[in-house]
Design a protein that fits this description.
The protein has 94 residues and is mainly α. It has one domain. Helix content is 49%, strand content 4%. The protein contains 3 helices and 2 strands; from the N terminus they run ααββα. A hairpin with an 8-residue loop joins strand 1 and strand 2.
């Protein structure tokens, strides 16, 4: 089988990126390991923890007032969406 040479046009921006990658991989030994150690589930779980901690600390900063929904007949406590940990968990769970 005969070898053939194929010419490929590579934009300068891509050439620069490939040269940088080659340098970091071969000279600096910085090959990216795949798959990434931090997956999407870990990121979302960390976000829920962060959200819950921030909600807890912001609740401690001000006196705790539960608002009763004016249009509801039941005595249901209203928690604003930006502090509602259960809502955050539901959104993360999909």
């Amino acid at each position: 089988m005969e070898e053939r040479t194929i010419t490929i046009e590579i934009p300068e921006v891509l050439k620069k990126q490939l040269e940088d990658d080659c340098y970091y991989i071969n000279r600096r030994k910085r090959l990216v390991k795949l798959p990434c150690q931090t997956n999407i589930i870990t990121i979302l779980e960390s976000y829920v923890k962060h959200f819950a901690i921030n909600a807890a600390f912001s609740a401690n900063e001000r006196p705790r007032h539960h608002h009763v929904m004016p249009h509801a007949n039941m005595n249901v406590h209203y928690i604003p969406a930006e502090k509602n940990v259960d809502l955050c968990k539901e959104m993360v769970d999909g």
